[in-house]
Specification:
The protein is α+β, with helices and mostly antiparallel strands. 34% of the residues lie in helices and 19% in strands. The chain folds into three domains: 76 residues; 65 residues, wza like domain (wza like fold, 2-Layer Sandwich), CATH 3.30.1950.10; 89 residues, Outer membrane lipoprotein wza domain like (Outer membrane lipoprotein wza fold like, Roll), CATH 3.10.560. Helix 1 crosses helix 2.
Length: 287
């Protein structure tokens, strides 16, 4: 643009200044648009980074919950069950009771029913003999005592493997030894009782007739069989427990447990004593 195109009242210098300002405004608008684009790109990158970080944290939280949370515990329990179908949930400390969830094992006088899928002529009902064996039809003696049903079924199939091709036998428990506990010592009715529901030692004593006058309430003993050669014993102070109403400390009875209530010291004194023997129980200096 030349100075001659402007009105005569304007000088050439004013026209040039106006032209400079117009160009400056265009440059500022261009810079503004460029900055806006860069800011938008930066915000987009920050948003993507935040989303990625949040996803990482969510994955880590989900993994933590799967390891220690309720859902994870159920999943791990299902995995254990699938890995060991029908089995016990591991072994515990033998001194604290052995298997945590033991399967029922056969005892003498138990009755089992054996059914063959393709050979019904071998179906039979068996009673475990006092020596722990059963007599299988045409197969002879097979030991059953201390076996669970799966182990006994395997033993039956092994016994008939020489008579049948791939024998398939199903074993069902018809009659079995019912859960029980024993209470002895200084109770009203010592004996063997059926364990029909969750029962504590204090409740077991009441079922057996309660304490006698000679009972030592503070030293009740709970015996629990760990195996054929080992018994676990626990001493309970039922007198203090009942007096202070701390029943939550009472032990729960399991099948096969024995509760023993001993005599107190005075009850051990013979009904008739010689005169010199009385001095063992009395101090003469007190009179």
């Amino acid at each position: 643009m030349s100075c001659g195109s402007w009105p005569p009242a304007l000088s050439c210098a004013v026209a040039q200044e106006h032209q400079r300002r117009v160009h400056s405004g265009q440059d500022i608008q261009g810079m503004t648009r460029g900055c806006t684009r860069w800011i938008a790109v930066a915000l987009l990158l920050v948003g993507c980074g935040s989303a990625a970080f949040a996803q990482t944290q969510a994955d880590a939280g989900a993994e933590t919950r799967s390891r220690s949370g309720f859902t994870g515990a159920v999943a791990e329990a299902k995995a254990i069950t699938a890995a060991n179908p029908g089995g016990a949930d591991g072994l515990g400390n033998p001194l604290l009771g052995g298997e945590r969830h033991p399967l029922y094992r056969l005892h003498p006088s138990d009755v089992v029913e054996v059914t063959f899928t393709v050979a019904p002529e071998f179906n039979q009902t068996l009673t475990v003999q006092p020596d722990g064996f059963v007599m299988l039809k045409d197969a002879g003696l097979v030991r059953a005592q201390d076996l669970n049903l799966q182990e006994f079924s395997d033993a039956v199939r092994q016994a008939y493997s020489g008579y049948l091709h791939d024998p398939q036998a199903a074993v069902a428990l018809k009659e079995f030894q019912r859960p029980y506990f024993i209470v002895g010592g200084e109770v009203g009715k010592p004996g063997k009782y059926d364990l029909r529901s969750d029962t504590t030692v204090a409740e077991a004593v009441q079922i057996a007739g309660g304490f006698t006058h000679e009972a030592k309430h503070s030293q009740v003993v709970l015996f629990r069989r760990v195996n054929d050669d080992l018994l676990e014993s626990r001493l309970l102070n039922l007198k203090k427990m009942l007096k202070e109403c701390r029943l939550d400390e009472d032990a729960h009875v399991q099948s096969g447990d024995m509760v023993f209530v001993p005599q107190n010291k005075l009850s051990k004194i013979s009904r008739y004593l010689t005169r010199p023997a009385v001095g063992l129980y009395m101090n003469g200096s007190q009179f």
